[in-house]
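Co-fold these.
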Amino acid sequence: MPDPSRIRANVVGDSTEVKVLMNHEMETGQRKDAQGKVIPAWFIQDVTATWNGKTVLAAQWGPAVAKNPFLSFKFKGGAKGDKVVITWVDNRGEKRTDEATIA
Amino acid sequence: MNLQRRKALRTGGGMTLLTLVAAAGWLRAEDAQAAEWNKAAFETNSMDATMKALGGGTPAQSKDIAFFQTPDIAENGAVVPIGITSNIPKTESIAILVEKNPNMLAAVFDVPAGTDPSLSTRIKMGQSSNVYALVKADGKYFVASKEIKVTLGGCGG
Amino acid sequence: MKTSRSRRAARLVAAASVVALAATAFGQSNTADEIAKYRAALQDGNPAELWEARGEGMWKEPRGPAKVSLEKCDLGMGPGVVKGAYTQLPRYFADADRVMDLETRLVWCMVKIQGYTEADAKKNPFGAGNDRKADMEALVAYVTSESRGIKMNVPQSHPKEREAYALGEKMFFFRGGTHDFACSTCHGEDGKRIRLQDLPNLTTKAGAQKAYTTWPAYRVSQGELRSFQWRLNDCFRQQRFPELVFGSDASIDLTTFLAVNANGAAFDAPAIKR
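Predicted complex below.
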C-alpha cells in the first residue's frame, strides 16, 4: 500500500488553492544499479483531483516529473469543509487515493 | 478518441510537435478517469522535427503564456520548479516539454472549466535545456519557452 | 585556500560539473540571485513533510520485539516530551552516562523500550529510495519538526557535555586524510565557495546558526530527508576521511561543537536544499 499523499486545500477568495505532495520514487528507467543493470521505470502516470465529485484537474505524467511530486493548482468554488480527493495511478498499476478537507 | 489519433499512436517514433500534440490525447475532463496513458506521446525524443513542425505553422508562439516561480538556474536538475500560467482564453490543457530530456514530454494537465489555467509542479532536467509550455486553447495550440540552466553544485553530494 | 596542496585538492574535489556556466559581465552576483530564486521556489512544498508524517506514525506505533511505542522515550525533557527536544540535543543522559545526540538517543529508546538489538536499531540509518526507506530518518524528521521555531539551547552544564564540545572543536580543525582537509578548510573562513555553493563559515556565530538550524533537510540531489548524522558522514566522505561511524562518539562530539555554536537561533527545519 503506497504511502499517503499530503494534501492542503485552502479557500482563497472565491477559489480553492490545492497543494499536493505525493510519495513516489518516479524512477525514470534511465538509471543503472551498481551491477550495471537498468533500474526499471516506476512512475505515476495518471493523476486526478476532484472536488465534491467534480474533476478539477486531470493529468498524465511521464518519469520526468520529479521524485516525490509536488503539484499546486486553484479552482473556482469550494467551501470550508468540502472534500478534495487526489488519486494517482502508476505504471505498476499501484494506486493511491487521499482526501483532504478544505480549510 | 478518434481513429486518426489511434493510428498516430500506433505509428510511434519520429513525431513532429503537431503529431505529438494530436497524439497527446488531450482529454476532456469527463474522459479523465477512463483514458489510457498516452505511451507514444511520452516516448518522443526529436526536437529538430518539432522545430520544423513549428515553422510549418503549428503551435504559435504566445506572449500570453507565462512562467512563474521558475528559476533560470536550477542548483540540481533532479528538481526544477516549473510554474505556468496561460492567459489565453478557453485554455483546455497545459503541457510541459523539455527539449534535451531523453523524452520531451514531461507532463500534460487537463484544465476543466472552473480551474485556473495556472499551475506549478517540479520536473527533472537531465541538462540545461529549453523548457516549453504548450497550451491548447479553443482547439488551437500555443507555445512559450524558457531556457533553464542546470548545474551540479558543491562536492557532488 | 591557503596552501597550493589544498588548492589542487579542491580542484580534484570539484570534479566534472554537468554544465559550465558562461561567464558574463554580471558574473557571480547574477548567478547568486538566480540560485536564491531557485531556493525560494523550492520552499513551497517540502517533501520532508512526507517523512515527518511517517515518523510521527512510527513514534506512536507499537513496534519492535516488545511491541511498544516510543511515546515514553525520554529525549531529555522528560518521557514522551518531543516538543523542543531537538534544541537541547546533544546532551548528557544520566541513564546512559554519556552525551547523546538525537539519533543515538533514539537508538537507546528503541533498544530499552522496544526491545530491538542495538545492531538492528542502527541498521540502515540512511535511506536509499522508496524500496529502502530508513526508519531513523523518518523519526528524525518528526522529532525535529516539533522543534521548529524554538531557540537552540544546547546545554554545556555537565562536564561530559563540555568535554564533547572540546573534542568536537579539536576535530573541526584537525587536518587529515589523503587531501589534508579539516572541516575548517572549507568552513573556517568567510567568502569560500565550491562551484556554486557559498560555504558557510562555521567558526562565526551567524554562520554556525544558519547552517545548524537548517538540518535535517530534504536534499533534492539525494531525493531523501537527510539528518545531521548523514551530513557529517557525507562531509567525511568528501574529505576522503575514514567513515564517520553512525552514532559514534566522534559524530556526537562534532555535532555538540556545531550545535552549541548555533545556540540562540531559532530552529528552522526540516528544510529543503539542493
